[in-house]
Amino acid sequence: MIDAYHFGHMVIDKIPYDQDVIILPDHVRPNWWRQEGHRLQLVDIQKELEMIHPKSLVVGTGKFGMMKVDQELKDYLEKHDIQLFTEPTGKAVKMYNRILLSESNLIGAFHLTC
In this model, does residue 8 exceed pLDDT 90? Predict the structure, then answer.
């Protein structure tokens, strides 16, 4: 569960993170980097999607929504029946926590800054 978020900082299960993260069902992958900083592409998250086979992917696009989800990733998710939720990170945190209450097979990918 995500305990708190503010610009550039997130607390997950009482552990603080100051860089972008991917939250998987059994661990957090800190210091998450993408090939293009404000563009989420399939290559940036495909390994996790193939390993977990989640029902849903929640993407926090940054405090101001600067990160965009690439169409190739959207197509992949649709083809594999993975529901995509994208919101600025503050709203995405609330959505992730709400979905987590009923669905454990979930991935969260969060851009913590802009």
Answer: yes
